[in-house]
């Protein structure tokens, strides 16, 4: 359907997906308004300062800089000019109970401290080198040919079919095949803790998280993760695109098989014939669409799509302790025992994983002080409504005791907590699931960008693998590009940094 009026396209959500979608629409000369339930943009890629400490609100580092640069180019922005990056020189160290420490960075520079350090360093570098040789082509195909396009199982298979034999099975088997030493197995497996799944249940494809570090390294924006969304917000401001904060959407209006507007919580209706919803597919199906108007495919995805894990974010500002030696520090048992780190249990945890962003960017904390970030599992519930503040407090007390044990002398000056209910209500993550759909899920389980209702497009957490900054951006870009093609009868304007102004 050709669109011939000047009613604005409505973008629901001002996270990375929503900001990206709004930029695509604005660059294609479409009037657009962004409605955001919270009081600031950026969603889970933003920062907050408390007591002089700057804390992340979700995303912790940039893992695939080449893909985020490509995403910015599609928005007509120069990423390196807008968001200067700092390479994380010491990205990862794992401590084992026997005193071994395994430092992971590139295949050529990773090393082992402890018993038989030289011999095991050679084993480590050999195993990482073989992994990178075998999985590097898979990684580059994903980054260059798969992820920039709309998720589709057949398209993905057509690009990756030659690699399918090595992509089967679980991560634990893959790690064992490349590292005979159990300490090296534990260290490599610990790089996958962020997924919320044990290595023996995690698809082998998730080794891509480690390959990203080997191929491109990890990075932080000079001003923290919020610099990414701030750059996109500035670009929208230059194009006079309004973002209405504190605007809770109550309903997407559907008439004659198409989206015709939205109704805000205060009753205001904004008329449109194009809505790009980046809140989540689950939220759209269960709360925003009238029950009679939910397309059959969306209803099926709502029932079938597996959610990722829940957790409690614990962020600490403090002083007095010797800083960690790496950005990510893991203290873990053997690979086969690491499932225990993903399950809630009473008592002070014996094992712990945390990050120290101020090691890379000292300006995130007052002079001589540090920012530490860790996640405690939140399991044993079927719905976020079953989680209680008492459960949060018990876990926080135990994990703060653990971090004091691992960092003797630490004086805790500021603590910031977000539990599953906070992630659901404050950060608008459906059911508090950190990544939306679970890592490793095949593309046929994602919500489609085209909803099945005329003029309604979906982006955000549940239309893409949601555990990465560039993929979140791409979900909004792709949804908006489809809207331009479908509703306005033209191809999208190609991205060029020269168009940034």
Concise overview:
This protein has 16 helices and 20 strands.
Beta strand count: 20
Terminal residue distance: 31 Å
CA-based gyration radius: 22 Å
> Proportion of β residues?
15-25%
Shape: globular
Number of helices: 16
Helix content: 25-40%
Mean pLDDT: 93
Major sheet strand order:
8-7-6-16-17-18-15-19
Structural class: alpha/beta
- Low-pLDDT sequence parts: none
How can the largest sheet be summarized? Answer: 8 strands, mixed
Tell me what the structure shows.
With 501 residues, the chain is α/β, with parallel strands linked by helices. Helix content is 34%, strand content 19%. It is built from 16 helices and 20 strands. The protein has helices at residues 16-27, 65-74, 79-82, 117-146, 153-160, 164-167, 171-178, 182-190, 208-216, 226-238, 281-288, 296-304, 357-360, 389-406, 420-425, 469-488, and strands at residues 9-12, 32-36, 47-50, 53-56, 85-87, 92-95, 101-104, 111-113, 219-221, 243-245, 249-255, 258-264, 269-271, 275-277, 311-319, 328-331, 352-355, 369-377, 411-418, 456-458. Strands 8-7-6-16-17-18-15-19 form an 8-stranded mixed sheet, with helices on both faces. A hairpin with a 5-residue loop joins strand 6 and strand 7. Helix 1 runs parallel beside helix 10 (226-238) and helix 2 (65-74) packs parallel to helix 16. The longest helix has 30 residues, at 117-146.
Key descriptive features of the protein:
501 residues, alpha/beta, 5-stranded parallel beta sheet, 20 strands, 34% helix, globular
Topology:
Blueprint: E1 9-12, H1 16-27, E2 32-36, E3 47-50, E4 53-56, H2 65-74, H3 79-82, E5 85-87, E6 92-95, E7 101-104, E8 111-113, H4 117-146, H5 153-160, H6 164-167, H7 171-178, H8 182-190, H9 208-216, E9 219-221, H10 226-238, E10 243-245, E11 249-255, E12 258-264, E13 269-271, E14 275-277, H11 281-288, H12 296-304, E15 311-319, E16 328-331, E17 352-355, H13 357-360, E18 369-377, H14 389-406, E19 411-418, H15 420-425, E20 456-458, H16 469-488
């Amino acid at each position: 359907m050709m669109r011939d009026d000047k009613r604005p396209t409505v973008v629901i959500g001002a996270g990375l997906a929503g900001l990206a979608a709004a930029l695509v629409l604005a660059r294609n000369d479409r009037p657009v308004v962004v409605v955001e339930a919270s009081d600031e943009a950026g969603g889970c890629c933003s920062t907050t300062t408390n007591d002089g400490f700057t804390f992340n609100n979700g995303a912790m580092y940039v893992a695939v800089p080449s893909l985020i640069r490509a995403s910015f180019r599609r928005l007509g922005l120069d990423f390196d000019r807008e968001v200067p990056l700092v390479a994380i020189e010491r990205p990862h160290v794992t401590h084992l109970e026997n005193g071994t420490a395994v430092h992971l960075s590139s295949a050529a520079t990773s090393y082992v401290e402890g018993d038989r350090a030289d011999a095991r360093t050679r084993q480590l570098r050999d195993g990482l080198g073989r992994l990178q040789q075998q999985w590097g082509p898979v990684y580059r195909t994903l980054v260059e040919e798969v992820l920039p396009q709309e998720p589709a199982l057949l398209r993905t298979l057509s690009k990756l079919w030659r690699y399918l034999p090595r992509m089967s099975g679980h991560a634990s088997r893959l790690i064992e095949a490349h590292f005979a030493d159990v300490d090296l197995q534990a260290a490599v497996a610990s790089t996958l803790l962020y997924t919320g799944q044990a290595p023996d249940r995690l698809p082998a494809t998730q080794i891509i998280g480690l390959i990203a570090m080997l191929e491109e390294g990890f990075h932080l924006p000079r001003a923290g993760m919020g610099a990414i969304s701030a750059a996109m917000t500035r670009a929208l401001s230059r194009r006079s695109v309004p973002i209405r904060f504190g605007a809770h959407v109550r309903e997407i209006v559907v008439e004659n098989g198409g989206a015709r507007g939205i109704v805000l919580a205060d009753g205001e209706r904004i008329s449109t014939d194009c809505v790009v919803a980046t809140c989540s597919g689950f939220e759209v199906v269960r709360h925003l669409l009238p029950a009679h108007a939910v397309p059959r495919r969306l209803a099926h995805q709502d029932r079938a799509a597996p959610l990722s894990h829940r957790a409690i974010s614990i962020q600490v500002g403090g002083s007095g302790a010797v800083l960690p030696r790496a950005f990510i520090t893991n203290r873990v048992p053997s690979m086969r025992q690491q499932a225990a780190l993903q399950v809630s249990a009473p008592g002070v945890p014996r094992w712990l994983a945390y990050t120290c962003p101020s090691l890379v960017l000292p300006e995130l904390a007052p002079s001589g002080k540090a920012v530490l970030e860790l996640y405690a599992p939140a399991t044993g519930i079927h719905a976020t409504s079953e989680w209680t503040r008492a459960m949060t407090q018990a876990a926080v007390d135990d994990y703060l005791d653990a971090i004091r044990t691992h960092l003797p002398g630490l004086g805790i000056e500021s603590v910031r907590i977000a539990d599953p209910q906070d992630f659901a209500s404050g950060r608008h993550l459906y059911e508090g699931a950190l990544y939306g759909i679970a890592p490793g899920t095949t593309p046929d389980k994602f919500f489609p960008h085209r909803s099945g209702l005329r003029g309604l497009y979906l982006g955000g957490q549940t239309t893409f693998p949601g555990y990465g900054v560039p993929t979140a951006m791409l979900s909004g870009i792709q949804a908006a590009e489809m809207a331009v093609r479908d509703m306005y009868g033209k191809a999208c304007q190609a991205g060029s940094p020269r168009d940034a102004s």
